[in-house]
Specification:
Radius of gyration: 24 Å
Shape: globular
Distance between the termini: 26 Å
Number of domains: 2
Number of strands: 19
Length: 456
């Protein structure tokens, strides 16, 4: 594809060079970096660059295409920032770049969906849990039923405070106790469905049984996908593990990290037989209990939903996130790897399905929106971006059926990765993303930061 010509320059506030501000005051444009720098444990001095992104909204382009942008994200405009005395910094012009992106998701309510999880008090009370649930549930009218497996060991005041935290975050939440305190977490993973049915409304159409670290960048794609099916008929919807060994070991079923989605008709049948299904279970895992109950008490079979992911990838997940994938959900974000998907996917609030969208910049850079800016030592000519880089440590032939084929993992010095570390949308709707390359302090290397500033 031919390179896109340099864009006409949009008008950004503070686009020109700035005089040195008063002592102890950072330039306005550095406020986010200054505020988050300590939390990110950046070096005392950082190499800093920024680009001002002007989204061009369109529904008439291929989201999977990796467009060529002539302007690079590194190089021109780079400066050194003293994080301990940012008042002394003089910022260069913010180079503007136009990017074609999907239109924002429309503002919708999702009262037709109810979700259930089974987890311990401490995991649910983790601030990151509240924030991530709030990202995709706040203000949507979707209902979260959270079964607290150790509720019997918590005071009423603790449970009220936890419920208030979710309510204050805008999440419609009901905290419930296990049907039987002797039930395992896996058994409660299934029987939370009984509580969900007790909170059914005339609008409820779909029941989602999730792991407590299942995450959705936005509920719109899930809602659209489920809308293909008639909730008045029996439907059991989900996806398999990407690892065929896991499918071979556990069977053909909806794996819980991607979610098991039951139509209202099927959910009622399973709820009516919940305790019987616990007794009949052929294995202790919650996902298997759900599957066995579906197959014993209905004629429904698993319907695979594309773009759901169990994400059973160990080690370095960058190959997945840099592959141009369009995930309805993410999983394992605070266990198998440690990320903040609520911050990573903030771009979805600006440009809908642009989370993890890719662009080539200059001759050797690729932005995977919300995950990384990768600078390739040998350029992009020989790099086939259609294939996922084989970075995860457990990838083998058993993954070919789901997310393969793969291209070889690059040597460490062949790719310089600026990884996404934080983002914020201010009261004017401006999105700021920080991508960081970590220098080796032992040899005196500074950290390097690229800030992308998105304005509608």
């Amino acid at each position: 594809m031919p390179a896109q010509p340099p864009p006409s320059e949009p008008k950004f506030e503070h686009g020109d060079e700035h005089p040195i501000p008063p002592p102890n005051n950072c330039p306005t444009e550095l406020n986010f970096l200054a505020k988050t720098g300590a939390d990110l444990h950046l070096s005392s001095r950082v190499k800093y660059n920024r680009r001002c992104i002007q989204p061009v909204f369109s529904s008439d382009f291929d989201r999977n295409e990796v467009a060529n942008i002539t302007t690079a994200l590194t190089g021109e405009g780079e400066t050194v920032i003293d994080m301990q005395n940012c008042a002394a910094n003089k910022l260069p012009k913010c180079i503007p770049i136009k990017l074609t992106v999907p239109k924002p998701y429309p503002s919708e309510k999702f009262a037709n969906m109810i979700f259930g999880i089974s987890t311990g008090y401490e995991r649910l009370n983790d601030p990151s849990s509240v924030d991530t649930f709030a990202h995709w549930m706040a203000g949507t009218d979707a209902h979260l039923i959270a079964l607290v497996t150790d509720m019997q060991d918590r005071s009423a005041a603790e449970i009220r405070a936890l419920n208030k935290r979710f309510g204050d975050a805008g999440v419609k939440t009901t905290l419930v106790r296990a049907l039987d305190d002797s039930f395992t977490v896996s058994q409660s993973h299934f029987t939370v469905l009984v509580h969900m049915l007790n909170h059914t409304t005339p609008e409820t159409q779909w029941y989602g049984l999730l792991d407590d670290d299942t995450f959705f960048p936005n509920l719109k794609p899930l809602s659209d996908a489920l809308a293909q099916f008639d909730h008045k008929k029996d439907y059991y919807i989900g996806t398999l593990s990407e690892d065929f060994a896991a499918v071979r070991n556990f069977g053909y079923m909806a794996f819980g990290g991607a979610g098991a989605y039951l139509s209202s008709a099927l959910a009622q049948k399973l709820g009516d037989n919940a305790l019987k299904c616990i007794e009949e279970a052929t294995a202790p895992e919650g996902d298997i209990i759900i599957r066995d109950c579906v197959y014993r008490h209905s004629k429904a079979k698993l319907t695979i939903l594309d773009e759901l992911f169990q994400q059973d990838l160990m080690g370095d997940p960058s190959g997945f996130f840099e592959s141009g994938v369009r995930p309805i959900n993410l999983h394992h974000w605070k266990s198998w790897f440690h990320l903040r998907p609520d911050k990573m996917s903030l771009a979805s609030n600006i440009c809908g399905d642009c989370f993890l969208q890719r662009w080539r910049f200059g001759e050797d850079e690729v932005l995977s929106n919300g995950y990384s800016i990768a600078k390739y030592r040998d350029g992009l000519e020989e790099l086939d971006l259609k294939f996922m880089e084989k970075t995860a440590s457990n990838l083998n032939d058993g993954f070919d059926f789901s997310i393969g084929p793969f291209r070889p993992k690059l040597e460490p010095d062949a790719k310089k990765s600026f990884l996404f570390e934080d983002a914020n949308i201010d009261d004017k709707g401006v999105l700021r993303q920080l991508y960081v390359w970590r220098g080796n302090a032992d040899i005196g290397e500074m950290d390097e930061v690229i800030e992308l500033v998105w304005k509608k």
